[in-house]
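Researcher: For the record, we're logging two predictions in this thread. I'll number them. Prediction 1 follows.
Model: Prediction 1, sequence and structure:
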Amino acid sequence: MKIKIFGLFLIVALSSCAYSFGGATIVGLKTVTVRVFENNAPLVVPTLSNQFTEAVKTRIRNQTRLSITATDGDAIFEGRITGYDIRPVSLQSTSTPTAGANRLSITVAVKYTNNIKDHEKESFEESFTRTYDFPLNGASIQSLLPAAIENINKQLTEDIFNRAFAQW
């Protein structure tokens, strides 16, 4: 009998907890506009602007129920890619120095505008930077860059999404 009462108590206690590990706060928001992130970096990759913009949209589609609209969203993401840089991070010990690994860095300036008055998440304007180290292992940089850019885009969109919607 004590076990049944304890079990019932445990079920009631656990069911009354309202923990959410999704973390997104979108109450009051129904739509979002994601404007094209222009590439203003000194070193320009022609496809990076479109790839990053689509990565932001994909993150929102996959983790919220918000509708993405072309204009006048309840929230608006806009910005520009301000930095794109590849540098060697380790040199191989040979007579002619060659990069053993490279570091790709991408910086994005983001402006998030929340158009819902008195919403718990406020607007912000902030820069986000992420890096990714990759060894060449005999391959060309051009063959490894698409995977490196995709990795950084995932990291950056996670940072931006969490800054705009997370309950941290």
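Researcher: Logged. Prediction 2.
Model: Prediction 2, sequence and structure:
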Amino acid sequence: MLTRILDTAELLLRRHGSEKLTVIDVARAMKMSHGNVYRHVSSKAALRAAVIERWLDRIVEQTDAIARQDAAADIRLGNWLTGLALIKQRKVIDDAELLLASAQVVGETPAVEHNHSARLTGQVVKILEDGLRDGTLPGVGDPVSTATAILNAVFRFHHPDLVATGGPPQVQMAALNGVVSLMMSGLKRSS
């Protein structure tokens, strides 16, 4: 039932925006009582947070598939950073309403963004650990602090607001490739 509620809420959010999304609207669209919806979500804010968490989970699933590719860690890291940027570019173009809603949700429920960031960071940490093991990234010091530094370095290429105002996608990708190339040359050098 929760999946159907979230599917309906996401559809309504895409169509009418976050401000017009209410539990009553979802119940009406599903032809059920709002009390039934309230059994699964406690409020409008909780409903929006659940929709955005699920939307962000889809991003993490896509990047996780890249992180688990059958390739050397250095290749996976480059693919992961490029893949995340491409995913975010598509979100800016294709999911404007959900992007706007995500900004509101993060303001109301910062844990949603923190969890998303932690999962992405965890993927990079795992790749870096693999790079130390397979010898393709010998310049990695502490994988956690290195992952944080890497994500900070490419922040402008995956933060939706900066992607939206960062110019044509090809220009952004060329700039990202330059940053990734610079990082990789350092990570491939042994200390």
